[in-house]
Amino acid sequence: MNRLAKKWLLPFLLFSFTMVRAQNIVPNGNLEDVNICDEYHCPCSPRGWFIVKNAVPTGYYHLYPDRAASGKQYFNLHVVRNASNRQYWQTKLLCKLVPGEQYEVSVKVAEDKIGPNVNDIGFYLTDHFIFSREDTLLQPESYVGFADAKTSKLKNNWFLLKKEFTATTEAAFLIIGNFSAEDNKAILTKRGYDYQGITLKVDDISIIPRHAAGCLSYQANKDSLYAITKRHAGDTLKTRESVATTVIVQKKKIDTLQLSNVLFEFDKFKLINPDTLETFRKLLSNPTIKKIHVSGYTDDAGTRAYNAILSVKRAEEIARLLVLKFGIDPSIIESEGKGISTFYADASMNRRVDIYVYYQ
After folding, report:
1. pLDDT of amino acid 194
2. What is the pLDDT of residue 248?
3. Alpha-carbon distance 157 to 160, whole Å?
4. CATH for 24-250?
5. How many CA atoms lie within 13 Å of 282's alpha carbon, on the beta-carbon side?
6. What is d(CA 161, CA 202) in angstroms, rounded to the nearest whole number?
7. Per-residue pLDDT tens for 49-103?
8. Fewest CB atoms within 10 A around its CB: which of 96, 136, 194, 230?
9. How many CB atoms lie within 10 A of CB 212?
10. 24-250 with 254-359: one CATH topology?
11. pLDDT beyond 70 at 288
12. Domain regions of the chain by residue span
């Protein structure tokens, strides 16, 4: 190799090394890559991400994509509830952590009521996925909290939280959510919140090693994560070591479809866009369906008596559309109004209809 070639080779190698070590090891950290789930053939979640609750993922697609910190997508994370549980999302890191290595971690958060409380978000770095039938409560002894993070205010009430930490284990999985040791009711009481919980918007999740030169499995891990497209109730994702060897076990006797996230206008029972149901055509055309139960809900604006009637109208309207659009025998469809729902902190998400599809 001549002297001129050597002169240019060293800067090139240094540049290449810098580019490798600057990689974010969180897959799809900006949440923009979309998973089209196998079950409904529609957008269900960010690719590479899984909700801890082993049921239909919620809190990802939004009526107001312009409210994202960047791009169009973000998590609506129920970090505090007027109940014992919380909501979490999780993924597998593209490279395992290296004990002793320093990492720069950052996340963007927003909360509509007040500026975000940094105690409501954390990174739990562990050696396996966690799945539960319902939302759960995770309070590990050790996690990366953001109470001591550098905070920068962004547009639309978003805040960038950034800090450094030193890895102590070879953790390969990331879970995000609220891991505070306080119980939910104590948190709500302390802050004087008079509603059902706290929802935190989360976007642009990043873990970047300061010195490590990446890993050989980076792309393979991303490909294996993106290849998993099942997301819904009845599917159990079992893994301890590698997502590439994931086994999915189906025990499908019932599917739950949730028409929520402001698909109904305030004080209305008609769907904003009736074609929304078309995303479920394959599922609703299944010849083994034996019964469909439709439950309607409202938010808590207005009297209980009025909302009881409105919730019935919402359920009956969806039942009517199931017959009209999919030719389902009306004798196997039952509908009911459940009245006011306060399950979600965001009132618009309580204006919904749940459809339970039972199979033979």
Report:
1. 65
2. 32
3. 10
4. 2.60.120.260
5. 7
6. 11
7. 998 886 666 667 665 778 889 999 999 888 998 888 999 999 999 999 999 999 9
8. 194
9. 20
10. no
11. yes
12. 24-250, 254-359
